[in-house]
Write a structure and sequence with these properties.
The structure is a homodimer.
Chain A lengths: L2 H11 L4 E4 L6 H9 L4 E4 L3 H15 L4 E5 H18 L3 E7 L15 H8 L2 E4 L3 H15 L6 E7 H5 L19 H11 L5 E5 L6 H14 L2 E4 L6 E3 L7 E2 L4 H8 L4 E5 L23 E6 L5 H11 L24 H11 L4 E6 L1 H10 L6 E5 L8 H11 L5 E6 H4 L5 H8 L3 E7 L4 H9 L7 H5 L10 H7 L3 E5 L2 H12 L5 E6 L3
Parallel strand pairs in A: 1-2, 1-3, 3-4, 4-6, 5-6, 7-8, 7-11, 8-10, 11-12, 13-14, 13-15, 15-16, 16-18, 17-18
Antiparallel strand pairs in A: 9-14
Helix pairs in contact in A: 1-6, 3-4, 3-14, 4-5, 8-11, 9-11, 12-13, 12-20, 14-16
Chain lengths: ~525, ~525
């Protein structure tokens, strides 16, 4: 057994059985070890941003880490943007990054780069394996580190000689640590606050947005009259008919400030207080009114479920929430293909327990609003703002949940960042329907250009935010990667194509030619 | 005048007039400043790896830096792999990276990341601008830093408030530093060595591979009988008919060792001694025979031209080289579309002074060999081994040299890394012909798998290196991004399509269905 084989065995024993991969020469022993393993499923991706975005989507749905397999400093560099999003999503994720053999690094061969420095930047925990025997030990530690709190990014760097040298044994899996309980005092303080008569909002984030925790929060709201809010970019929100409704904090700071203005106290559960996404001249970054008290019930890494249940008990909340989302009357829109029309179609046709990956940017916000009363589903968003997450995320979610339909709402500009994800969807025959929102523009930047006070834009300035010239055809690109694709020019066409997609289990893309 | 406008003015005054860009909200003042400037040409790219790869290609041909415009930590993360290649190519390059406003960073908004740490990893020089006035000062320093030696990567980080705050004036351009002369002693030592009767190779790299320096090296070879070698992955080699021939050091270590075995001394000019690209079990990393003396005439950052001319003088070399490449008899191949057949077509049809960007991987090596006696042209290679360089590099080269045909030899697997480059080629109507070498495999990895001794691969292992299932159509993908495309299934079809491409000035892709 060589070091690579020992590492593989330990990862599998630790519960890791999916590996999103883009390997190179220095990882060939790891590739071979995966090839020999019955238990590890390799998923080849054509770019490392797809690898890590998929691992993020997988972890959001599976609540356990996938492994990634990355090639040297360039591989982890390419992986970094979606690792940023994964970090903000607080998911568990284990990177296995190859490096040159220890004795080879001194020669400064062309691909030599500082892999540990890159790993430190994008990982909560990272470590260079010190020997063939240490490789599987590092693997066990990485899985344990990834499962700390809500989840974290752990990276093992594998010098090639440690992968091919002989290892004595595979290290045993390490015990998963328990979630830390929220402080009794925090729960008592919040319980008192909920009784003080002040107008209260409870801002939910992280795992507080799972169905059972929303139910607990709904009971607390019923007892206290508090308003339930949801963080702006949740990793995974369980929403739709039969679930406790939450109001999502808007994207633009002015709207956030307006939303928060009436409240005298804000209770945080698995979330931080809202801040402006970007800074703008003369506008505040901090959005909670100064007069508003802020209390934290539980941090994102603490045991949110126990804290919510204890709080509900303490304030004698009813056994069930009093307000649940009612299913809307499905409609079939017609006319121009506006984001709202797309939202109406989705609201009518999304199948129960489907998963929506939303990197719809400007369009996504309208579609989100229009699907509030759809059947129960999970909504995944761009947690860290690094675009190019949506397609990989939907791929990973589909791998984690092969029996659930996945719908990827994908803006055109950000979709182009990791368009290679389509090929892996075709290869793995994942059940993903991509709604490619083609408005031929970085539309959000046209809005932001005005908001940052950058003056009246001229044609040259606007051309830098424009995605026409030439117009792209995502239908052609999808077909080029083996994904069936159609184009919808109006609401009727879209509705019909989306209806067909919802009853066909395969990867497929609908290019929605959006009218604003 | 705000800070962004001052920076723009200083960059233009410093000779920087092309900016490859993928901006976001925090860079809107910079976008607006570019929009207002008549002198700066913005080139929108759909991914940051395209931005920096294009800036590398531009610099290799223009011998001066382009600017890049990148969005926050995620932008520079995505830019990093091609910055690694640019670093290895020793080109000048100036990154302008937006960051959150200084006062906003404390709030840990979703996109907040450690931009300076990322910049340090991929730059020889980096600095956070400290005020609106300091912004243009930083810009001037960055251009100066980028022009040090052969060229370096310089990065200015721009907190958004410094871009929008008022600036008093635009800092003046700084004087470019002169190339450092090689030590007199080094020249004398090498002159002596060339007279000692030992079998000698001169290994040329960096700017030693430009035509005028090759001519000087050819004179030295004529006088001394030394063999001229070229580094394995040159940034820019001027080759073909009428130029001094050099033998390129092979990729595989065994072949390198065999090539070097006869030599008793090795003279380095702008290159390091060859080392193995990767480590392999039981194979050496260092490839120069122990008995071979190594002397350095000039480092890659020194004045190679003056050193070569001084050496030629010192050894009384003839006024001109005695050996020049003779144009071959053009042929028109037929039958299966092998890499050699593609090479024959290129050798026959490459137009004078065209530029070849070679990320052809396994196929590229054969094509290189077959084009040795083509008409004079420039050959650019994957300097740092981080795949996904070829298409962006050809884009940037075409921007630098609008009157020269650019041919991109692009392997399928690495082409998918930065396939978005096609769109910018169409948008800018660059005269690039892409020869997409489709062998439906990471072919090099199939070779390396055996070389690293990873055992007999099974079907599962091989599937991780396979790019069929589904087969990709680069014709469809190219058309989806506005680039005209055709497919060639045999040598005759390829020859005819390539001939047409050489007489049509526009971006176009030929998908070459390669038989091995």
């Amino acid at each position: 057994m060589n070091g690579a084989e020992a590492l593989l065995r330990t990862l599998v024993d630790s519960g890791v059985d999916v590996c999103f991969a883009n390997p190179g020469t220095s990882e060939m022993q790891l590739v071979s070890a995966i090839g020999q393993s019955d238990a590890m499923r390799p998923i080849l991706c054509l770019f490392e941003g797809v690898v890590t975005g998929a691992a993020d989507g997988y972890a959001r749905m599976a609540d356990k880490p996938a492994a990634t397999l990355l090639h040297l400093g360039s591989g982890i560099s390419n992986a970094m943007a979606n690792l940023h999003n994964a970090k903000r999503a607080r998911v568990p994720l284990v990177n296995i990054v190859g490096d040159h053999a220890t004795y080879h690094q001194q020669y400064d061969a062309p691909l030599t780069a500082d892999v540990p420095a890159r790993a430190r930047i994008c990982s909560a925990w990272s470590r260079v394996a010190e020997s063939a025997d240490d490789l599987s030990v590092s693997g066990a530690q990485a899985v344990q580190a990834a499962m700390q709190g809500a989840g974290a990014i752990a990276t093992v760097i594998v010098p090639a000689n440690h992968a091919w040298d002989e290892a004595k044994e595979a290290a045993p899996a390490l015990a998963a640590s328990q979630l830390q309980l929220a402080a009794e005092e925090a729960i008592a303080t919040v319980a008192d606050a909920l009784g003080n008569g002040k107008r209260t909002a409870i801002l939910l984030g992280g795992r507080a947005l799972r169905e059972h925790n929303l139910a607990a929060a709904g009971r607390i709201a019923a007892a206290s009259g508090a308003t339930l809010l949801c963080e702006t970019f949740p990793a995974r929100l369980q929403r739709g008919a039969g679930r406790v409704p939450v109001q999502r904090v808007p994207y633009f700071g002015e709207q956030v400030a307006e939303l928060l203005q009436p409240f005298e106290q804000l209770i945080l559960v698995g979330s931080a207080a809202p801040v402006s996404f970007f800074a703008y001249p003369g506008k505040p970054s901090w959005l909670t009114p100064e007069s508003c008290d802020i209390h934290t019930l539980a941090s994102v890494d603490e045991d949110i479920n126990t804290a919510l249940l204890a709080l509900a008990d303490k304030i004698d909340a009813p056994a069930t929430p009093t307000t649940l989302v009612q299913r809307n009357q499905p409609t079939s829109p017609s006319g121009p293909l506006t984001p709202m029309a797309i939202g109406e179609t989705l609201s009518a046709l999304l199948p129960q327990h489907c998963i929506v990956s939303d990197e719809g940017a400007t369009c996504g916000l309208s579609i989100y609003a229009a699907t509030e009363r759809a059947t129960a589903h999970d909504w995944l968003t761009l947690t860290g703002g690094a675009i190019g997450q949506g397609l990989p995320l939907s791929l990973g979610a589909a791998i984690a949940c092969p029996n659930r339909k996945v719908v990827a709402l994908q803006a055109d500009g950000s979709g182009m960042y990791t368009i290679q994800a389509l090929w892996t969807m075709a290869r793995e025959q994942t059940d993903v329907t991509i709604v490619l929102l083609n408005n031929r523009s970085y539309a959000i930047l046209n809005i932001e250009l005005a908001r940052v006070g950058a003056g009246e834009p001229n044609a040259k300035t606007l051309s830098m935010l424009d995605l026409s010239n030439p117009d792209m055809s995502f239908v052609d690109m999808a077909r080029g990667m083996g994904v069936a694709a159609t184009r919808a020019e109006n609401a009727e066409e879209f509705h019909q194509q989306f209806a067909t997609a919802m009853t066909t289990k395969r990867p497929q893309l609908i290019e929605a030619m959006v009218s604003q």
